[in-house]
Amino acid sequence: MTQAARSSGRGAYHDDFRLSITKALGDQLAVALDGLGRAPLTGVSLAALDERPGVYQLYFMGDFVYVGKADRTLPGRLRNHLRKLSGRRAIELSDVTFSCLYVDEDFSALAPEKLLISHYKEKGGIPWNNNGFGNNDPGRRRDATILKQNHFDAMYQIDLGRPVEGVVVGDHSLHEFLKMLKGGLPYVFRYMDPPMSQLVTVNVPKVHLSADEAFRIVAEATPEPWQITALMGYVIMYPESPAEYKSACRYYRSGSVIEDSPSYSCEELTDEDKTGSAE
Questions:
Q1: Which of 95, 197, 214, 220 is 20 to 30 A away from residue 73, measured at CA?
Q2: Residue-wise pLDDT tens for the chain (279 aa)?
Q3: Distance set, CA 101 to CA 33, 58, 59, 64 (Å)
Q4: Is 267 a member of any domain?
Q5: Total-model pTM
């Protein structure tokens, strides 16, 4: 019998043993999470959680849509998601639930959410983990990006009719009012402070001021070339009027409001689009 015959095939007396520890961990995590119940994504549910790191799964209308991790505290990370989802159209918060597992800090270093993503990738993937849901502010250079139709921001655009939190009735400097807006909106508002903004006064007529009403007030106080652009996932303000954006749905220019229809691309998401989706 040849050496090749002895070392391969049935009856061989030596071979390689392959053990995928990471796959085993991912499988066990998935089983543990699937064995849990689901709680509504509300402040009450989050208040009952321990301030510990862990992994979690989100469900929308009963479907599993996202897995993520919290390096510091689960309730803090989930509150961020609750705030973001509260500012989106076509999403009822009552349709969003979650389950979670606490994990030790040492185990957190193994990126448990990536183990779960790999586990579910074999089963078809997780919708919100590859469409931009977990992304933060993409930055100025990505403002002109044409979003894909299955991008989270394209499917669930920001709600400009939502009231701004923490609004104080009365006169404010434009500088103060812009800071108020940035802190009171459940989505990104990135802006450049106009010159002399501390000397320009704006009036806030009511407490329950919608984002749309607030941006109209700002637009009236900022002449050309200042422009507020409501993109599908966030809002920007720069001295660039009349700049056009493919993913814009509304412009505010010198007190005028201009509606727009976002353009789409049906191409698959690139690796760059997916960056940060599991955060």
A1: 95
A2: 445 444 555 667 776 766 566 677 778 888 888 899 999 999 999 999 999 999 999 999 999 999 999 888 999 999 999 999 999 999 999 999 999 999 876 665 567 778 888 888 777 778 998 889 988 898 999 999 988 889 999 999 999 999 999 999 999 999 999 999 999 999 999 999 999 999 999 999 999 999 999 999 999 999 899 999 999 999 999 999 999 998 999 999 988 899 877 765 433 333 344 333 333
A3: 7, 12, 15, 16
A4: no
A5: 0.82
